[in-house]
Amino acid sequence: MAGNGLSSLGRVKLADLAPSEGLPSDAYKISVSTLSHSLAQYSAVIIQFPASDGALLRSGLDSARLYFHQRASYPAADMIHTNDSREWCKTSGYFADPQLWQEIYDYRPGLTPMEPSNGMEFHPAGLPDIFSLLGNAARVILDAISFYLNLRSSPFTEILDNVPLRSREISSSALSVCCYARPSFQGAHHHNLTTQEDGQLVMYPEQEHQVDKSLISLVKSDKAGLLVRDLHGRWVLVDEHLGPQEVVVYPGLALYQATAGYIIPALHRTEINNMQDNMYGRCSLAFKLMPKSMTSLSCSEMRAAGHGVEAQFQLPIPVDDFMQRSHPTEQLLNRNTFQNYNFPTPQDGSMKPLMRRKKNNSRCKPLPPSKRLRLEAQRLLKERVQEIADKKGIKLRFCNLKECENHIHSLDSPCATIRMEIGWPHGVPFVHPHDLPNKSKIAFLEAYEPGWTASHDMESSLSEHVQAGQQSANCNCKSLVQAL
Fold first, then answer.
1. CA 99 to CA 192: how far, in whole Å?
2. How confident is the model over 437-466, as pLDDT tens digits?
3. Phi and psi dihedrals of 385, rounded to 5?
4. Which end of the chain has fewer CB atoms at under 10 Å, N or C?
5. Other CB atoms within 10 A of residue 235 CB
6. Strands 282-289 and 174-180
7. 296-297/317-318 β-pairing
């Protein structure tokens, strides 16, 4: 599943991601690779449903427009969104956020009554069918991500709702029918939209971004306006050219936690263009696959697959606590921080300062060959390997030395794909060069430093020993002459 990166947002057919017994087909491997690379580069991917499902999605959006159009011009006080994180798994029915000029109808099986309580109340049509369609797709996508991470089949089953729900169970996942900037929705003088010079209205100011706490989110809109921040910090309009049966998929914070940070959650915001000429605003269907509230997010599956798990992901976190916590997005705003690690640095800094000190101080001892190997390998890892990984959207996670001695002889090891994609030296364990034995360090340097050889390094080290000895002898002779 090697890839050279994607020039645009990846498109994958849902049918090609459906798992089957036996060995994976070529179509499945290609689709999983496209999915994973698109998520790594753009934090989003476009999923293509069968053409027959396009009619259901289209009718859902049509019903959404009519539902919000017949709503009152301003919501009642008890329908104003309070942003209470404690109610994350209890939202149901209609509520509004006048500050963002946004209206939402949450459909949650087991909690949302689909039969009207009186003859005057209507609900968006087709929600159970759309919930089932997008929910099944979300689980298929989640399993495809698990396959790419070399996890066992359906590793997240224990934290997901039962299929179907048991008696009196309430779904943790929800289908949100959303409407932005409906012209008949009053209270616009309270909203915080920012008007740009070209007349474009942006729902969220530049300093405010949204990140879902879901595992996977699927969004289908009737007008373009969803922007997601990519690997390089650029905002990409991801729903501009969606077909009738296509939806945008992006990962959330729960998946980031459950995969020990390997799957980066999407930062997104919504903009609105030329809503003045539209009587319905911008409508969308958003399904969020959520973990059950009475379970915990654990990285045990990642650990069992041989992935490194950093300290912040070591302990399981109860889902309910996770959903009520605040999650600062400062690190997510700088995507490169997830590609870099704090490597141990020598006391004298990089190689260049070391060489300068040698020139300025003729009496300093030359580096022994073992330390030279370590410093050279560390420098190359930072400069060359990290650059390759960043360009391809690969997150480097090094193995344990003892474990990886077996990985290098297996095609299905946790690090096999990464080693292949960045051209890791053959036969060298996929661990930080600082932890490699000298023989493997030499192979690492010869792969990434053209013209570098261990014999050349030893010769230069010996010549420095000789030069240092000669300089020391000259100094001793001069001092001896002055004494006489």
1. 6
2. 777 888 888 788 766 765 544 444 444 444
3. -65, -45
4. C
5. 15
6. antiparallel
7. antiparallel
d(CA 80, CA 64): 19
Q: Indicate whether 67 pLDDT > 50.
A: yes
Please tell me the distance from the alpha carbon of residue 320 to that of residue 294, in angstroms, as a whole number.
7
Q: Give the tokens for residue 477.
A: 């002779």
Residue 478 has pLDDT above 80, yes or no: no
Helix (H, G, I), strand (E, B) or coil at 59: helix
Q: Any idea which residue has 């996977």 for tokens?
A: 216
> Rounded distance, CA 227 to CA 243, Å?
17
Of 455, 469, 467, 470, which is closest to residue 372 (Cα–Cα)? Answer: 455
Ramachandran bin of 314, using left for φ above 0, alpha for ψ from -120 to 50, beta for the remaining angles: alpha
Angle subtended at Cα 417 by Cα 396 and Cα 391, rounded to the nearest 5 degrees? 50
In Å, how far are 52, 68, 90, 370 from 86, measured between CA atoms?
38, 26, 8, 56
Supply 428's token pair: 């060298």
**DSSP class of residue 383?**
I
Contact 291, 297 (CB under 8 A): yes
Q: Burial letters for 342-374: b for 16+ Cβ neighbours within 10 Å, e otherwise?
A: eeeeeeeeeeeebeeebeeeeeeebbeeeebbb
User: Rounded CA gap, 52 and 413, in Å?
Assistant: 39
Per the listing, tokens 């330390």 go with 371
The string of pLDDT tens digits covering residues 318-330 is 999 999 887 766 6
Please give the sequence-ordered ranges of beta strands (E in DSSP) within 184-245, or none if there are none: 194-195, 201-202, 216-221, 226-229, 235-237
| 322/313 Cα distance (integer angstroms) | 12
Q: What is the CA radius of gyration of the chain?
A: 28
218 vs 205, higher pLDDT? 218
Threshold 0.70, pTM exceeds: no
Residue 3's pLDDT band (cuts 50, 70, 90):
very low
Q: Which domains does the chain have, with CATH numbers?
A: 11-335 (2.60.120.330), 351-467 (no CATH)
Whether residue 163 is predicted with pLDDT greater than 80 in this model: the reply is yes
pLDDT one-digit tens code per residue, 207-222 = 467 899 999 999 999 9
Q: How open is the CA angle 61-63-68, to the nearest 5 degrees?
A: 95
Q: Judge residue 339's burial from the number of C-beta atoms within 10 Å of its C-beta, 0-12 exposed, 13-18 middle, 19 or more buried.
A: middle
| Predicted local confidence at residue 368, as pLDDT | 61
The single residue listed with the structure tokens 């956020």 is 97
Rounded CA-CA distance 395/417 in Å is 11
Q: Collapse the DSSP code of 201 into the 3-class scheme (helix H, G, I; strand E, B; otherwise coil) and give the result.
A: strand
Q: What SS3 class is residue 240?
A: coil
Judged against a pLDDT cut of 70, whether residue 25 lies above it is answered with: yes
